[in-house]
Design brief:
Organism: Hymenobacter ruricola
InterPro entries: Uncharacterised_YfhO
Keywords: Membrane, Transmembrane, Transmembrane helix
Mean pLDDT: 89
Protein name: YfhO family protein
Strand content: 5-15%
Radius of gyration: 30 Å
């Protein structure tokens, strides 16, 4: 790291002296992360993360099985009547990158480690670009403390946060490869991309690759114009090799995810008739016209408002988060609203249905970003500006249909993702990087003596280009401050009305209280304008006095670090503050209710439970039982169809075939109801009726009696013909249960068909009769069925997906190859005599 960051003037210094600034920076980052999350580190509290709590509920069965049996369960029945654990809780022993991640996080607790990694990786990126350590610290703070980073941690999106944390390593590797040293750059890129892909948040990786693609296009154009195309291609080939190794290390996870995506609600529905949508219900995640992605309305449900983009500079422009605390001295407080209600008021008045908080880059960062458009070298500034603009356009989603619908339809893979407002993560990377490079450009060591006497404590030298830089600093300050002033003046034309206001009126909000709430929204906006102007003025003043020779570089850089940190820290605490921490651990949150305790007395091997209280958006039930519902963003597509068209319509026969034995009602008088119609784990049917399409199969469920009849889609299983069976005296029972292995014993007087209350999943489940493979097929739209011979026999179902075994083997080979490549690159770099920049291709960055 030091070899890349330092110029030849310091290369002769002892190694410990060169390393000391970086060691101090790492210690500072660890301290910052620990102080921000001090309730976790010093008080033993936990962060109340909704999605992590739900994850623990859904993963509990698989995790307990792994502890007991010493091997992973690849399937779980804890959610949605059964689904693979690929996207829930599954480890791939062939992927060794987890060991590197543990080393980088220094043993820090979760979320503390996330913030530390974001700071560390941002610092490595900037140091690799030649930025001086103290300025790199300022840039790292800007990257790590962007409000979105902390807001997503508050929500429990830990993998998204980790993917963002590793993104600067990827960018740093690419920049160093093309602009400085191709071997060091390729090694840094391979490590960064390996870790980024490892955490398995592909939407963040996708946005990162869009930013990389813009950079690559600009570099390609420059290489062609300057006659450097062969060298460009060589460096690109090295990066391609690094990317192949990175993907290979996570191949097991990517392969199983890609396989599962074909069957998940991120893929197409086989049904042609649209599902009914209740008033106020979110659109289903189905593909249009049998496409390969999610529905447009579903994808663009969370779109950033066009005017809302100003929150990058003024966080409370639209009231902040959907619910924010207001003090007793607020307009609402003075209007007489009781204090117990003021802790969570609907201050947000923008277009989004919900927001955990705005995307705020920082007033100081916005000022430095605009300054970077004037002072950073062209290739870098054009790349980062283009990435920022694209980010904003994509985040607008349905608010800029002309552009975004075209992108949604044409950009490969883009229609797999939802919540397009997340595209602002591109700007979250680009803006701080350009801002840090701008700060580095201004805070340079000076080499020309001043023309006037030097005052004590001031800078000893002044650069000849100081006047030119100063004018650009003033321009950037004027533009940024001007935007704040315009926002302030525009606020007097807003009515600050929100869609939720009508609902508040129904709940008893008087006109006086509603007027007071809107006045509070106005105050939030205007107060943040003044706050932003204060930080912009302070940052401008630091650079002004530095360029005038009145302030030395070291104190100027220190003050800029402090300003960036104070600016972002103060806003971050609005969305992830002390009120987000709790004494109880996640395990303690899962306390069985009286209903759970009653159901758990049933010692049968397997049955299912339906919780009527928000059944398909909660995993509390999954922690204790095999649930009909659950909480997951990518459930099986066919099961989603079943929910929308049958379960939501209270089709009791469908619930019976899913073996729903218990119903948690939420009624204190009768919290649990036992369902006498549950069909059990398996049963013989007297007839099988073919239909011609998935739509006919779904429609048949509306009148089907699954206890005696099964319906099969002949377009998918043409070998299954209409048939009737004599099932007199035939019995079957589940004798052994594991999440991914089931054993049954049956006695049949005649050949017949057995239906299992288990979800059909073609890529992995294998059926065996007396140890011999037997083909099974799908019936009743989601269930497994098996043709069986008469007599006493044993049936086994084992979940043995080839994608897991093959993917894990590729991951292992790739992990070994990556390790050898990194060792080889390290040895090669250690033996080289040349400096960090290479040949004519090397270009200035910082």
């Amino acid at each position: 790291m030091a070899a890349v960051a330092s110029a030849s003037s310091v290369s002769s210094a002892p190694w410990w002296q060169r390393a000391l600034p970086h060691v101090l920076a790492v210690m500072f980052f660890a301290l910052l992360a620990c102080v921000y999350f001090s309730p976790i580190v010093f008080e033993g509290k936990t962060l109340a993360q909704h999605d992590i709590t739900q994850f623990q509920g859904g993963a509990h069965e698989a995790q307990q099985y792994a502890k007991t049996m010493g091997r992973e369960a690849l399937w779980t029945n804890s959610m949605f009547s059964g689904m693979p654990t690929y996207l829930i809780s599954l480890h791939f022993p062939g992927d060794w990158s987890g060991y590197l991640q543990k080393a980088l996080t220094l043993g820090l607790p979760a979320v503390v480690a996330n913030l530390f990694l974001a700071l560390l990786c941002g610092y490595i990126l900037l140091v690799a670009l030649g930025v001086r350590p103290l300025v790199a610290v300022a840039g790292a703070v800007a990257l790590g403390f962007s409000s979105y980073n902390l807001a997503i941690l508050a929500a429990g999106h830990n993998t998204k946060s980790m993917a963002l944390a590793y993104a600067p390593l990827v960018l740093g590797g690419i920049l160093v490869t093309y602009r400085r040293d191709k071997w060091l750059g390729a090694a840094l890129f391979a490590v960064g991309l390996t870790l980024n892909v490892h955490v398995n948040h592909l939407q963040i990786t996708y946005y990162l690759m869009l930013l990389v693609a813009i950079f690559g296009l600009i570099e390609l154009v420059g290489a062609v114009r300057e006659g450097r195309l062969p060298d460009f291609l060589k460096r690109t080939a090295l990066l391609a090799l690094g990317a192949a190794l990175a993907v290979g290390v996570s191949f097991g996870r990517l392969y199983t995810t890609a396989e599962y995506s074909k069957y998940s609600n991120r893929g197409p529905s086989e049904l042609k008739t649209p599902a009914p949508t209740a008033p106020g219900q979110a659109p289903a995640a189905s593909a249009e016209d049998g496409g390969s992605g999610v529905d447009r309305d579903y994808a663009f449900q969370y779109s950033y408002g066009v005017s809302e983009t100003i929150t990058l500079l003024i966080p409370n422009f639209y009231g902040g988060a959907s619910a924010m605390p207001l003090g007793t001295d607020s307009n609402l407080g003075r209007a007489g609203l009781p204090a117990e209600y003021l802790g969570s008021m609907p201050t947000y008045w923008g277009q989004q249905s919900y927001t955990a908080g705005p995307v705020y880059m920082g007033a100081v960062v916005c000022f430095l970003f605009i300054l970077g458009l004037f002072v950073v070298e062209k290739r870098t500034r054009y790349w980062l500006l283009a990435g920022t603009v694209l980010s904003i356009l994509l985040a607008w989603g349905k608010n800029f249909e002309t552009f975004n619908y075209l992108i949604f339809d044409l950009l490969p893979g883009y229609n797999k993702f939802r919540a397009v407002s997340m595209a602002l993560v591109i700007a979250q990377l680009a803006m701080p990087i350009l801002g840090a490079l701008a700060l580095s450009r201004v805070l340079r060591p000076r080499a020309v003596a001043p023309t006037s006497p030097v005052l004590p404590g001031t800078a000893a030298t002044v650069a000849p280009e100081a006047a030119a830089l100063l004018s650009k600093v003033l321009y950037a300050g004027a533009i940024t401050a001007g935007l704040c002033v315009l926002a302030y003046l525009a606020s007097f034309s807003f009515d600050f009305a929100a869609p939720i206001d009508g609902e508040l009126t129904k709940q008893g909000f008087t006109p006086q209280l509603l007027t007071a709430l809107r006045a509070d929204r106005a105050d939030l906006l205007r107060n943040d304008v003044w706050r932003g102007l204060l930080f912009i003025g302070a940052a401008l003043g630091v650079l002004y006095f530095y360029l005038k020779g009145k302030l030395a570089m070291m104190p100027a850089a220190l003050v800029m670090v402090a300003l960036v940190l104070l600016d972002l820290w103060g806003v971050d605490k609005r969305y992830l503050g002390e009120n987000k921490f709790q004494r109880e651990t996640i395990a303690e949150e899962f306390q069985p209710t009286p209903a759970d305790q009653y159901i758990l007395r049933d010692a049968d091997l397997s049955y299912r439970v339906l919780n009527l209280q928000n059944p398909f958006n909660e995993a509390q039930t999954s922690y204790f039982h095999k649930s009909i519902g659950g909480y997951h963003g990518a459930k099986l597509r066919r099961y989603q169809d079943l929910i929308e068209r049958q379960i939501s319509n209270n089709n009791q026969q469908v619930l019976n075939m899913l073996n729903m034995r218990y119903l948690i009602t939420g009624d204190q008088k009768q919290p649990v109801q036992r369902n006498p119609g549950a069909l059990g784990n398996a049963w013989f049917v007297s007839s099988v009726r073919p239909v011609a399409s998935p739509d006919e199969e779904m429609a048949a469920l509306s009148t089907l009696s699954p206890a005696t009849e099964a319906v099969v889609d002949a377009s998918k299983f043409p070998q299954q013909k209409a048939a009737t069976y004599d099932i007199t005296g035939s019995t079957i029972a589940l004798t052994n249960y594991s999440p991914d292995e089931l054993k049954y014993r049956y006695n049949a007087t005649h050949d017949g068909v057995v239906v299992f209350s288990e979800i059909y999943y073609a890529d992995g489940w294998q059926a065996f009769i007396d140890g011999k493979p037997a083909p099974h097929f799908r019936v009743d739209y989601v269930l497994r069925a098996l043709q069986v011979p008469a007599g006493n026999h044993t049936i086994e179902f084992k979940f043995e997906p080839k994608s897991y075994s093959v993917g894990n083997a590729v991951s292992l080979v790739s992990s070994i190859a990556l390790l050898l490549a990194l060792v080889g690159a390290g040895v090669y770099m250690g033996r080289r005599k040349t400096g960090p920049a290479e040949g004519a291709y090397a270009a200035p960055i910082a």
